[in-house]
Amino acid sequence: MPATPRTARAAAGVDDELTLRRAQKGDERAWRDLIARFERPVHALIWRLLAGRAQHRAEDLTQETFVRVLRALPSFDPAGKARLSSWILTIATRLALNELRRPDHRTLAAEPPGHDRADAPLERQRLGAAIARAVAALPEGQRAVLVLREYHGLDYEEIAAALELDVGTVSSRLTRARAALRAALEGLDV
Amino acid sequence: MSDDDDLRTTYDLEAWAPPAPSGSLADAVIARLRQPPAVVAIEPEDAPTRRRRWHLAGGLAGALAAAVVAVVVVGSLKRAPGVGSGTIIADTARSVELGESRVQLDPGAELAWERAGDRVRAVLRRGSATFSVAGEDTFEIDGAALASVTASGASLRMEAKMNLSDARVIGASAVTAAAVAMLTIVVYEGSARATHGGQTVTIEAGGTLDVRAPGPPRPPSPTEVAVGAGLDVQAQLDE
Q: What is the second-level CATH architecture of the domain A15-107?
């Protein structure tokens, strides 16, 4: 009998739980499964948080994130408040923000960040470059809230926990960040 | 909380796309995790004299007795986590449960601890360990005599890195107490207060503190050689 979406999700949940348990015990295959599942969002998060300043460090910090995640994994409580995904993204976020606070990364890079994709339509490339410039120009606190919410779907409580803020501060920073981004993009013909 | 902003529906935010991560990420991560403890086996330059052999034998016997005591204490701690003390040397990755709190030891790590009620005093003499301080516990952790860390409700890692050129090994057992060159403290959750060189700093989650040894480590004394040789016997007993 083909699996319904609900049973498929349940099966995936069981798989995830088993993978997590094996990873917590140091099973290398489970480590690889966990890295394969989260490497893209972790790398994307770090790359976006470092926009305009230290994106060349994204690979190193992604690697460092997983080293720390796997070392701390035995202490992760699956029944606790944090989801595994938000716990991993929290570690990545804090590493990236620490990197931004290094004095040699405080100056905004002259070239706006952007990953050129030759196959993307020209309009989409222009939009991507404009978003990159606008996000890079945001204060790092607003940028982190915006990226975690808009690109990684964390809810306000998860963002508050990740950045050690209260939910009201998350809300106000997100409002300001969205307004700044909207203002930067409004002039574009996209 | 509701989220009624339509930024994402107005603009294609995915137009700002990151590059794909390196295909060898998992290999690189696992290679770092599998690194053996940073100790190089260096045979002593001179063969031990008969007097030193007696020192070694005495040290082995003393450490053997201490190991038996430590194993007994470790067993009793699991039953009654309120008080007690113990020492463990991990020749493989080990997990030590101290009541609600837990310590994960990397291979090669040596940890001593003493619990009195909610306070746990621990000494990480060498190697690396991850501390998950839970419940009402407060940990005071001495990191290789380079820094003291106080933490409660926190998850942190300490790595005592060795100066390889000064490490001395007798047989399979390392005498590294005098060779720790740098201590790294990483806080994953909560915060911790670290004291070193007369200064106290607070390390927030995501923060890292590196503490370097003030000068070149002194060579191990014959007494330390004897104690170090005994430690390996204890590790075997712990298994």
A: Orthogonal Bundle (1.10)
Query: What interhelical angle do A58-72 and B25-33 show, nearest 10?
Result: 50
With CB atoms and an 8 Å threshold, state whether B16 touches A128: yes
Residues forming CATH 1.10.10.10 domain(s) in chain A: 120-190
| Residue B13 counted as domain residue | no
Asked if B25's CB is within 8 angstroms of A35's CB, the reply is: yes
Put simply, the answer to whether A132 touches B16 (Cβ < 8 Å) is yes
Express each pLDDT in A157-178 by its tens digit. Answer: 999 999 989 999 999 999 999 9
Please state whether beta strands B94-98 and B101-105 pair in parallel, antiparallel, or not at all (unpaired): antiparallel
pLDDT at A4 over 50: no
Cβ atoms A92, A64 nearer than 8 A: no
Residue window 146-205, chain B: list those with CB within 8 Å of chain A.
155, 157, 186, 188, 204-205
pLDDT of residue A168: 95
Residues of chain A within CATH 1.10.1740.10 domain(s) are 15-107
Supply the CATH number for residue B59's domain: 2.60.120.1440
Which of B22, B32, B205 has its CB closest to that of A164? Answer: B205
Task: Determine contact: B6 vs chain A, CB below 8 A.
Answer: no
- The whole-angstrom separation of Cα B156 and Cα B191 is 8
The architecture in CATH of the region A120-190 reads Orthogonal Bundle (1.10)
Question: Does some domain include residue B204?
Answer: yes
Instruction: Judge: A91–B188 Cβ closer than 8 Å, yes or no.
Output: yes
Task: Summarize the confidence of residues B159-164 as an average pLDDT.
Answer: 73
Residue B151 lies in a domain: yes
User: In which element (H, E) is residue A174 found?
Assistant: helix A167-186
pLDDT, mean of residues A96-104: 80
Q: Does A166 touch chain B (CB under 8 A)?
A: no
**Separation between Cα atoms, residue B147 and residue A18, nearest integer Å:** 38
Residues B188, A72: C-beta atoms closer than 8 Å: yes
Does pLDDT of B54 surpass 50?
yes
Number of separate domains in chain B: 1
**Testing the interface with B: which of A33, A34, A75, A169 to mutate, by most B Cβ within 10 A?**
A75
| Interchain proximity B16–A164, CB inside 8 Å | no
Enclosing domain of residue B126: 40-238
Interchain contact A172–B (C-beta under 8 A):
no
Which sign does the torsion angle of CA A176, A179, A183, A184 carry? Answer: positive
Distance CA B229, CA B57 (A): 9
